Each structure stands twice: as structure tokens, then as C-alpha cells.
Model the fold of this input.
Amino acid sequence: MQLTSLPLKDSFLIELKPHGDDRGFFARLFCKEVFAELGLDPHITQINNSFSAPKGTLRGLHYQLAPYAETKIVRCIQGSFYDVIVDLRPDSPTYKQSYGAVLSAANRRMMYVPKGFAHGFLTLEENSEVIYFVTQAYNKEHERGIRWDDPFFNIEWPESPQIISERDRQHPDFTESY
Done:
């Protein structure tokens, strides 16, 4: 696997390095030792799976507060989606900045989302499915969200969402005391 730094501090795009033959290929999705060597959190606690049947489904932008803040490694296993991260760490030089990239089953890219980031995605195809590895278990009391169209962040989505949960529609405007 090859990790490429993204414009937001401590975030990465992960590309597989397939080893192929006439049967297909083999590639490593995760290696605890490689992550630890790079100073990334190598402790996977939970693996989540999300499926969205309609194109234009938006999920997020979600995060958890400490001590349940979580690092995520996100991968599309069917279809495609536009994956967005927002740096919410006040001490970071990229605080309040966002970044988005297309993750698809075809490009096999993954996004490394550090603790202290909000994360969400918009499906670009019908029947899109994502798995994400997280370093903390879900904790409802510590879960928070920011609205996908919060003017404070001015995120440029590739198209307008068609389906958004009521919970995600009702996230408050961002404030410095997230």
C-alpha cells in the first residue's frame, strides 16, 4: 500500500499496491506495523459497513468527541462516493479546512481520517457500499455532526444530495466550541 499525504494535516490517501498474476491480484489493505512506523494510529477496534441504494445519498458529516474520538480508514467496496473530511482540531494548521476525493470500487483508494476530523460522503452511483475501520467503538453521547452545507466550511460537493437523514439535516451550524 502507498500512503500519500493530503492537504489536511495528518490525513492520507491510501492506494493499494496489487501483486497480480493470471488469477487476479493480492493487495494489503492494512498493516499495523506500517501504520505505527508512520506515526498513524494502528489500533482497529471496529469495522463498519454502510450500504446506500440510491445515488445522491449523503451521510455525515460525523465525528466523536474525546475520549471517544476516532481515526477512520474508509474504503468503497461497491459503486462510488465523494468522501469529505474536515479538520476540527483547533491546534492544527489546517483547522476548519476540508478536503474531498472520489473513492470507488474501481479505483480501490482509501482515506485515512485522523482523530478530530469530521467525515461524510455522498454516493455517486446507485448501490454504493463502504467499509470503514475505526479506532474507537461508537459512543452515542460523544457523537456530533456538522451539516453538509454549513456555510462556514463552504464544501464543494460534486452534486446536490438527494437523500439526507433527518438527523444529518438538523446538525447545528459550526461553532468554535464544537
